[in-house]
Specification:
Layout lengths: L7 H17 E6 L10 E5 L6 H11 L5 E5 L8 H7 L3 E3 L7 H12 L3 E4 L19 H9 L3 E7 L5 E2 L4 E2 L5 E7 L15 H23 L7 E2 L3 E2 L2
Parallel strand pairs: 1-9, 2-5, 2-6, 3-4, 3-5
Antiparallel strand pairs: 6-9, 7-8, 10-11
Helix pairs in contact: 4-5, 5-6
GO molecular function: acyltransferase activity
Keywords: Acyltransferase, Transferase
Protein name: Lysophospholipid acyltransferase family protein
């Protein structure tokens, strides 16, 4: 791939993230053809580990796009790292505050500028005991209804072997096998022009999470369980 003109800070971020990922992982990358090289794009992924943002960023960068995450605001307050996150186009999410809508506005702005925006619809690492996808929050649905840009699903399995959120164990050696698969854009046409009602937002969100769940099942093998919610357990 030809060297991309991405600027000093983005090049710096690549230099500190990509080499460790190459050293720590045995990668099975699939489906990159579903990620267009230009144009606005919403990328949605399952969230299974504190390690998977690095794996996902590596994958999306290798696919030819800059990975612009929506990430919780607290990480932007970290010394040094927070400043770099701002400089490389990451978007803070102010959860449960009057500023929460700013993340949607910033994401819409990034999409209108032709960027790729990465979102974990679950909003946090899954709480499902076996790390299957759980029910998502409605941010992706709101963003899609506002912009109408393609929503491409990305399923991952393997980052939990680097850091397992259930045991809090970090394991970096030997190299861990990680699989990342992008699928074709999710068909959301039945909601084209729909109002952002609670019912529509939740239907779109459940549809997106169902696609991710089934993709994860293909990677892991076996049948996917119903979507899970921390409040009620299995619910769809």
């Amino acid at each position: 791939m030809a060297k991309r003109r991405i600027g000093f800070w983005r090049r710096f971020a690549v230099s500190i993230v990509k080499p460790p990922m190459i050293g720590l992982t045995e990668r099975d990358w699939r489906g990159m053809e579903h990620i267009p090289s230009t144009g606005p794009l919403i990328l949605v992924a399952n969230h299974i580990s504190h390690a998977d943002p690095f794996v996902l960023a590596h994958y999306v960068y290798d696919a030819g796009r800059w990975p612009g995450f929506l990430a919780k605001e607290s990480v932007f307050r970290l010394p040094v790292a927070g400043s770099i996150l701002h400089k490389v186009g990451q978007i803070p999410v102010f959860r449960g505050t009057v500023d929460a809508a700013k993340a949607l506005d910033a994401a819409v702005g990034a999409l209108r500028a032709g960027e790729a925006v990465l979102i974990y619809p679950e909003g946090t690492i899954t709480k499902e005991p076996d790390l299957w996808p759980m029910r998502g929050k409605t941010g992706v649905a709101r963003l899609w209804l506002t912009t109408g840009v393609p929503v491409v699903p990305i399923a991952m399995w393997g980052p939990e072997e680097i850091f397992d959120p259930r045991t809090k164990k970090l394991r970096v050696l030997p190299r861990r096998a990680v699989t990342v698969v992008a699928g074709p854009p999710i068909d959301l046409s039945r909601w084209t022009g729909a109002a952002p009602t609670s019912a529509n937002l939740h239907e779109i969100t459940d549809h997106v999470m169902g696609v991710l769940r089934d993709m994860v099942a293909e990677i892991r093998g076996g049948e996917a369980p119903p979507l899970w919610s921390p409040a009620v357990g299995r619910d769809s």
